[in-house]
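Notebook entry, structure prediction.
Reason for the run: the old model in the group folder had no record of what sequence produced it. Starting over properly, with the input documented here first.
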Amino acid sequence: MTRTLVVGSGFVGRAVAARLAAAGGDPVLASRRPPETRTGTGVVPWVRLDAADARSCASAVAQVRPDQLVLVHGPSDVTWCEAEPERAAALHTAAATHLIAAAPGRRTVLISTDNVFDGTSPVNGESAPTAPANAYGRAKLAAERIVRESTDGTVLRVSLIYGWEPPETTKWLNFFSSCAHRLRAGERVEVPGDQWTTPVLVEDVAAVTAAVLPSGAPPLLHLGGPDRISRADWAEALAEALGVPRSLVVRVPKAAGRYASRPTNTCLTSELLDDFLAARGLRVRGVAEGLRVLLKEAE
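New structure, fully documented this time:
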């Protein structure tokens, strides 16, 4: 079995590990703290790792002896990164540098972000010039350069990722789960009507991540969902699907809340994705289908 060290045991890292395990692989999660929830049908092995520490990275790689790496490390809280830009840049670049040095020659996939663009255009394909408008985007772009210049790897830029998370998680929830739990409780949610995304189900992200791990995948690939939608329109569609009043969704300007530092368009398009998915029998689901899938799972 191919052993994959998945660096980051949060929402996305756990989904990637579960996908690899279900396909017969041998994933190992690595992070500073143990995962909060189970992945797949059993518990995916976990090792302690401080990705910003070179000795910790060398120790984890020596212990796991991975054939390949998936880097899903943080910090990914855009608001926190904006408040701590130097710290965010240092953590992202140190993690990429230390892990590649500890596992030379290993195939590596870095999960990156749509925040490497300034948000002025709703169309951001792989050939579009990068221009980060916030600290998170700058930190991720720096990590991208390390991966692309230092190893056999793929940078997979992903748009807003969503799926079910329990309300009692110790970290901030993804946008979908945050809205769903509050709307179900009859609470009002304030959501920007002037910030657009191309959302992607976390299971689809995991499937595409697994697909780009073998050698021969493009060195850079964009993964955005097929629908460009504002956060407010998305929240209203969720309210309708949940059978609660759409009036619980309160439209506010992006600049008025925690989304102020996000680009207006956190959207990704691709010149490569359709052919890549078709060749592997994969597809990325749109927002309406995603809502149906998730609400059916919650029944």
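Summary: The chain has ten helices and 14 strands.
The old model has been moved to the deprecated folder.
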